[in-house]
Amino acid sequence: MTFKRDFSRFKTFSLLLLALLLYNCGGQKKPVTTTKPTTTKPTTPKPPTPPKSDDYKVELPKLNREFRGAWIASVANINWPSKNNLSTDQQKTDAIALLDMLKTNNFNAVILQVRPSGDALYESPHEPWSYFLTGETGKKPFPYYDPLEFWIEEAHKRGMELHVWLNPYRAHHSNGGKVSSASLVNKYSEYTYRLKNGMYWFDPAAKIIQDHASTVVKDLVKRYNLDGVHFDDYFYPYATYNGGADFPDSKTWNQYKNAGGQLSRSDWRRDNVNKFVERIYKEIKTEKNYVKFGISPFGIWKPGYPQGIKGSSQYDELYADAKLWLNKGWIDYFAPQLYWPINSTGQSFPKLLEWWESENTMKRHLWPGLNTVEVKASDRPTEIVSQVQISREILKDKAGEIHWSIAGLTKSYTMQNALKTQVYQEKALIPTSPWLKITPLKKPTLGYKKDNGNTTAFWSTEDNTNVFQWVLYTKYANTWKTEILTSDITSLIIPSSRDGKSLNTIAIQAIDKLSNESEYKALKIN
Q1: CA-CA distance, 63 to 477, in Å (whole number)?
Q2: φ, ψ (nearest 5 deg) of residue 485
Q3: I want to staple 446 with a disulfide (CB 3.0 to 4.6 A). Which of 51, 73, 86, 521 is the partner?
Q4: Over the stretch 276-287, which tens digit does the pLDDT of each residue have?
């Protein structure tokens, strides 16, 4: 019995050992290893990872874009301040009223005159306080404040750009009181000339004048959080300012000729202005690339351009070759003063705009100036609305216009209503400037919570300080709604239903100083 039991155990052990060997050898002998290379079978690529809820993709509606600006003139107290003896509080109250009116009517830019005639409506280390601000050249406001800082802050609070408007060559206006000891007329008397209409004009050919104006612009761009620098149509003065007599620049003309200059006097004058415009553009970009430079020249380059156009020639009278500046791209936006009605035979608004657009070879912004305050038309609001519509047809997605002046709005509720109800019904972002570069904004974060039938959305981004605006998108069923919000708004209560349709999607984009939008962040609402 013992032998059988031991033999049975041995047999069982042997069978288990054999099974284990066969299992390790794959049930067969191991193949002989050779030096022949083996071929790796191609692997099937892994399927793409499905998008996370964080990367919810949607097709956002197209953003509404148009530059909608208004000139605010300080010279002769045309617009603001309305008088030169207002208190600081009254100046601020009036400024806020103007900005609120523009915001209500869906404007998005202000062109504020801060250097009307060799002076300043801001704290300047280079020029005296303006007579038009305090009634005395060189006298600061009391109680003290910096009007430009105030305007910039208040404009930005309302989602509007603030462009500073300067007159580079006018030294003293005939409505600016007596020429005092603080005036630059005395500091640069060698190159400042009194014209027959009582104004004083700097000599555009004098290097010291060019350098001073350059210093003023660079100082403004460096110290203030402004969005643009703006020159108007005044270069060499209109002939009527000097009673039809030639501009009295014999001193600098003779200096040029004695140094071997070969240009004619007219070409030399134009060359002085051309070099100055190019210089200013480049200096602005060196200091802050995102600050735009714009010029609003007289609307006609030369009579006959285009065919049938009649009137004054800025090329020959003001020595302003504005077509060259546009052709060369020495500006970021160009606002020719097209102050005539659509049906004017000698100064047709659409023909002139089409001609300037044909000269826009560098594809800069072309935003015509409209004579909102006194265009010669029996129904002025209808005329201005029609000019906006024509501008859109000609300029397409880069449309825009600047209204001369804000008085055309403040003095006419009918004008405000016509614009608001017929062409400016919705807010608009300013068109982008793709030739200007700026560090892109980071993709925002977005969240939401539901409470009492509403949805509260909240958002942010890593670089909030560089955000100029936000665009919030909400979707009800298949219908999108877009809201342009100021930079300080980072949360909003949103109705969970609208017109019987439930909110199903929200999205947010950050907008930078050049109106570029960031990547969007979207969430599905459950």
Answers
A1: 20
A2: -120, 150
A3: 521
A4: 999 999 999 999
How far apart, in whole angstroms, are the C-alpha atoms of residue 72 and residue 383?
21
| Structure-token pair, residue 432 | 């982008």
At 412, give phi and psi (nearest 5°): -145, 100
Phi-psi region of 308 (alpha: psi -120 to 50; beta: other; left: phi over 0): left
d(CA 341, CA 387): 8
Q: Concatenate the DSSP letters of all residues of 159-173 into one string.
A: T-EEEEEE-SSEEE-
pLDDT in tens, 446-481: 999 998 889 999 999 998 999 999 999 999 999 999
pTM value? 0.89
- CA triple 433-392-234, angle to 5 deg: 65
Say how many C-beta atoms besides its own lie within 10 A of residue 45's C-beta: 6
DSSP string spanning 216-243? Answer: HHHHHHHHS--SEEEE-S-SSPPGGGGT
Cα separation of 510 and 124, whole Å?
34
Task: Tell me how far apart the 2 most distant CA atoms of the chain are, in Å.
Answer: 146
Q: Are 331 and 293 in contact (CB under 8 A)?
A: yes
Confidence of residue 520 (pLDDT cuts 50, 70, 90): very high
Long-range CB contact pairs, 283-290, < 8 A, 24+: 283/214, 283/217, 283/218, 284/217, 284/218, 284/221, 284/229, 287/218, 287/221, 287/222, 288/221, 288/222, 289/436, 289/437, 289/438, 290/436, 290/438, 290/513, 290/514
pLDDT digits (tens, 9 = 90+) for 159-199: 999 999 999 999 999 999 999 999 999 999 999 999 999 99
Distances (CA, A) of 501 to 68, 275, 504, 505: 33, 60, 9, 12
Instruction: Indicate whether 370 pLDDT > 50.
Output: yes
Residue 136: both structure tokens together: 């005395």
Contact call for residues 438 and 512 (beta carbons, < 8 A): yes
